[in-house]
Design a protein that fits this description.
The protein is an alpha/beta fold and 397 residues long. It folds into three domains: 2-62; 69-277, Alpha-Beta Complex (Spore Coat Polysaccharide Biosynthesis Protein SpsA, Chain A); 281-396, no CATH class. It has helices at residues 2-26, 32-43, 46-54, 59-62, 79-90, 110-120, 134-144, 163-173, 208-213, 229-234, 246-257, 274-278, 283-298, 305-323, 330-341, 355-372, 378-396; strands at 69-75, 99-104, 124-129, 149-152, 158-159, 179-187, 226-228, 260-271. The model is unreliable at 1-14, 20-44, 52-64 and 275-280 (pLDDT under 50).
Length: 397
C-alpha cells in the first residue's frame, strides 16, 4: 500500500515538473532548467532526464519553441528610402519583436527620420556610431537582438506584407533550419517594378556544397534572409575584413551549420536607384568582385582538397570574365595579371604558373568567345556589352 502511494506521489511530482517546465517555456524562458524539467517529466527519473539531455536531442523533439524574429536594418546615407523600408516592416502580417536600425555614421538626415518614427513605434531601436562598414553594422544589430531569429533588410529595400509570416511558417515547419530566404523582385527609385529585370526565384537544392561553390544562389541576398541568431553568433557574424562576398561568406557558413530552406515566392523588393547607378561598378569590376568573393569564401575550407580544386576551376572562369573586357587594353591586361599574381589568397595568387600560362589562358578564352559569336544574336549582344563597357571606362577616366 505504502509503495503504491509512493509511486502515485512520484508520478504527481513528475507531472508537476513537466508543467513547471512548460510554463517556463510558454514564458519564453528557454534555458537548461526548462529543458531539464520537461525531460524529467517525460522520463520520470533523474538519470533518464540527464540521459535525454546528454543525447542532445533537437529542440523539436523535446519541445516546440515558437520562433521569434527581430529585424536588423543597417543605415548609411539612405534618407530617401529608409522610411519606406521601415514602413514595409511595420506593415508585416507577422509582427517582429524589435526593429533595430544601425546608423553607420550617416551624414544625411536619415537617423533623425528614424528617431521620429521611433516615437510612434517603441519597437524601433536606433543605434548610432562611426562608419565601420556594412558587416560591422549588421553585427551590432545581431548583438542587440533578443529574438531566436534575425531578419536582415537593407535600408533601400522593402518587403511585401506577407514576407515574415510566410518565412515564420517555414521556420515552424523546419525548426532546425539555419536560415530561410525567398525570391526577390527589382524596383526603381519611385518603387516601380523594373520590367527589364525579371524577378529571381529560388531554384535548385540549397545544399552546403552548392552554396559555398556558388551553384545555388541565395536570391535577394540579405534582405531576403531570416537566420538563427545562435548560429550567427556561433560563426562569428559577418566577417569584418571582407569587403567583397561578406553575404556569400555568411550564407555558406550557416549552410554548413544547418539545413537551408527557401520560400519560392517574391517577397522582397530590391531597389536599383540612381545613386547606386552613378557609383555603380562596371562589368570588369563586377567580374573581379565575383572572383575575389569566391576566393574569400574558399579560404574557409582550404583544407578540403576536392572543394579547392572545384573552386579553382570556377575561379579561372571568373578570371576570364574579367580579362575579356581588357582584350584591347594591353596595359590594363598586364595590370590585371599582376593584380591576380600578387593577390594574398590561397587560390587567386596561384591561378597561373606564369605569363605564358596566362597568355594561353587568354587564347583559349578568345577561341571560346569566337565560337559563342556564331550563335544567333550572340555577336550583337557581345558587341553591345563591349561598347557599354568602353563607354563606362571613358566616364571613369
Amino acid at each position: 500500500m505504502g509503495k503504491a502511494v509512493g509511486e502515485h506521489h512520484l508520478i504527481a511530482v513528475h507531472q508537476f515538473s513537466a508543467q513547471i517546465g512548460q510554463k517556463m517555456l510558454d514564458g519564453k524562458i528557454l534555458n537548461r532548467s526548462c529543458l531539464y524539467l520537461i525531460a524529467f517529466g517525460k522520463t520520470r527519473t533523474v538519470r533518464g532526464a540527464r540521459r535525454l539531455l546528454l543525447l542532445h536531442l533537437s529542440a523539436s523533439e523535446v519541445f516546440m519553441a515558437e520562433p521569434t524574429i527581430d529585424v536588423v536594418i543597417p543605415l548609411y546615407n539612405m534618407q530617401r528610402f529608409v522610411e519606406a523600408a521601415i514602413r514595409s516592416v511595420q506593415e508585416q502580417t507577422f509582427s517582429p519583436g524589435k526593429i533595430i536600425v544601425v546608423d553607420d555614421g550617416s551624414t544625411d538626415e536619415g537617423p533623425l527620420l528614424v528617431s521620429e518614427m521611433a516615437r510612434d513605434d517603441p519597437r524601433i531601436i536606433l543605434l548610432s556610431g562611426p562608419n565601420q562598414g556594412l558587416s560591422a553594422a549588421r553585427n551590432k544589430g545581431i548583438a542587440t537582438s533578443t529574438a531566436s531569429h534575425i531578419a536582415f533588410l537593407d535600408s533601400d529595400d522593402i518587403w511585401l506584407p506577407e514576407k515574415l509570416e510566410r518565412q515564420h511558417r517555414c521556420l515552424q515547419s523546419n525548426p532546425n533550419a539555419s536560415f530561410v530566404h525567398c525570391g526577390a523582385g527589382f524596383i526603381d527609385e519611385a518603387g516601380r517594378l523594373l520590367e527589364n529585370c525579371p524577378p529571381r526565384i529560388p531554384e535548385g537544392s540549397p545544399s552546403f556544397n552548392a552554396i559555398r561553390l556558388g551553384d545555388y544562389a541565395v536570391t535577394g541576398s540579405a534582405s531576403a534572409v531570416v537566420a538563427r541568431k545562435d548560429l550567427l553568433e556561433k560563426i562569428g557574424g559577418f566577417t569584418l575584413p571582407l569587403r567583397r562576398g561578406e553575404d556569400w561568406d555568411v550564407w555558406a557558413k550557416l549552410a554548413e551549420a544547418g539545413p537551408v530552406e527557401a520560400v519560392d515566392a517574391v517577397l522582397t523588393l530590391l531597389r536599383t536607384n540612381l545613386q547606386s547607378a552613378t557609383r555603380g561598378i562596371s562589368a570588369l569590376e563586377a567580374a573581379k568582385s565575383r572572383l575575389y568573393s569566391r576566393a574569400a569564401v574558399a579560404e574557409n575550407w582550404k583544407g578540403d582538397a576536392r572543394f579547392m580544386e572545384e573552386s579553382r576551376e570556377r575561379l579561372r572562369k571568373e578570371a576570364w570574365y574579367a580579362a575579356r573586357w581588357l582584350l584591347w587594353n594591353p596595359a590594363g591586361m598586364k595590370a590585371l595579371y599582376h593584380e591576380l599574381r600578387d593577390r594574398p589568397s590561397t587560390l587567386v595568387g596561384t591561378l597561373f604558373t606564369g605569363p605564358a600560362d596566362f597568355i594561353f589562358f587568354l587564347i583559349r578564352g578568345i577561341a571560346s568567345t569566337a565560337r559563342d559569336m556564331l550563335k544567333p544574336g550572340e555577336a550583337w549582344r557581345i558587341f553591345r556589352r563591349f561598347s557599354e563597357e568602353k563607354a563606362h571606362s571613358s566616364k571613369r577616366g
